[in-house]
Amino acid sequence: MTGWALGPLHDVLDLIEFKSLSVQDALVEWRTDPKRPFHPGLAQWTEHAVCGYLAASEQIPAVPGLPQGESLEPVSRLWARQRSSQEPAGVDWYEEMVTDRRYVGHGVRELRVVRKGSVTDHPRDESEIAVAVGVLAGGSPVLTSRWERKRLRLGRFELPRLVRLVEIGCVDASHRILFEGTPEEAYARYDSDVEAHIGTLIAGGSYRPGMNCGRCEAVATCPEVPSRPGLLGINGSDLPRRSWSMTTGRTYGKCPARAHLEDMFLPREGSAEDSEAVVRGKAVHAWIENRHRRTPQQPCEPEDTPGSEEAWQGEGWALAGLEARLGIQMIGDHALVCPLRDRPDDAELHPERPVVVYDPDADVVVIAKTDLLYRMADRWTLREMKTAKRLSKEDLLEEYPQLALAVVLANAAVLPGSESCTVELERLTGTGPVVTDLEAAAPDVLAQARRVLKKYVSSWHADIRYPTKAGKACKDCPFTRWCPDAVDRGGT
Ligand SMILES: [Zn+2]
């Protein structure tokens, strides 16, 4: 099953641009290709995205100097250029390449960068723009495969008279011209925005494991992603490598299709509103996280709260009345149990740090979004934080399955501090704060954590079709627009 939301879009556009098929014929050919099984939600999105791309392309103003009635021709080869560098140490040459959609004609080179969402709210990335226009001005066609991990072989260079970089938003057929100018202007842009940062751009500083690791070809050998065979307790499937997080597991329980569309990061639509309690929980989390990110770091104080309903609203949270007051009380209570309260100078805090680990037996990349990882002297702790009006008497691992994942990760020695990393739960309630040590190293706790985790992983792992579970799950689903089975939100 295709797992990249823009892959099919490029396949269909290739059929239109290089095999001269009509939009309808290209979509039919793509849909009926037995080598490319696709999810019905992905098919619906692709159809929309193709039409959005083409409509936006028609709206782009003509390139200056193009004869009346003429248009640019699509180009199948990628463009790249090879550069030499003294910086950073150890790197004497590197390659810059552009993908996306490429067009030429009458001395013009144009690159159209495809976005899933709208370009109107897409932040401008000046370094990305500068690299792209540098390649547009000085690049040559790529003759060899970019996956060979060898130096690329490049074709003949032809100097353009004008280069243009356009961004296209497929969801709403929007476009934005990011750059238009002569090669000299493009080089000048490159020089000012890229050369100054080339060390960081090439070396990247480090590997940064995160939400995209599931799509990375190199994750199995990445030095920053530990490999733990048997972590999930299931064996491999014939499916391509996938990534899994607690969100995947929870969403899968509501509707398998929704989990699949979420994993592909398809554009979302304003979903049904969160309940007041959910908004309050998110607001409390965000407030405390911001306090923990202060530099120099300092403990949260009891009076360090939003203080009023208006202050919540000023921070963008729709909280009022009882929930607003409860949220303020919870933040004040957190000061009593803040990890920094005793020895702030001897602590290290990492709020919202993703932890990524690869299980080769299941062929799954597990991504855990931890609330807070912190070190006090030489002792590391993972703390999950929950807000609840009252304390429940349920089994904690059952009630908060991400704690089960945390216990499993702690025992697999993938958290900082290795196997001695402790796991704790901070509950902020209407009657005060409670911090509970999960005793992650105890065999019965680990066994229970594995049982809970399996419930969320095994049926997802065995699934190859991600069927829809239309009904209740559609009510707050942000992907109903792409789902052929979605029931009307106003209905049942
Ligand atoms: Zn704190």
Key features?
492 residues; Lambda Exonuclease, Chain A; 3 domains; five-stranded mixed beta sheet; 14 helices; binds zinc ion
3D architecture notes:
- This protein has three domains: 7-59, no CATH class; 73-203, no CATH class; 209-492, Lambda Exonuclease, Chain A, CATH 3.90.320.
- The chain contains 14 helices and 16 strands.
- It has helices at 7-18, 23-31, 40-59, 126-138, 183-193, 198-203, 246-254, 256-263, 276-292, 309-314, 321-337, 396-399, 401-411, 443-462, and strands spanning 73-75, 79-84, 93-98, 101-105, 108-115, 140-141, 162-169, 174-181, 242-244, 347-351, 354-359, 364-369, 372-376, 379-388, 422-429, 432-437.
- The strands form four sheets. A five-stranded mixed beta sheet has the order 1-4-5-7-8, sandwiched between helices. Strands 10-13-14-15-16 form a five-stranded mixed beta sheet, with helices on both faces. The chain has a three-stranded antiparallel beta sheet with strand order 3-2-6, covered by helices on one side.
- Strand 2 (79-84) and strand 3 form a beta hairpin.
- Helix 9 runs parallel beside helix 11 (321-337).
- The radius of gyration is 26 Å and the shape is globular.
- The mean pLDDT is 88.
- Bound molecules: zinc ion (ZN).
- Zinc ion (ZN) is lined by residues 288, 291-292, 300, 334, 338, 340.
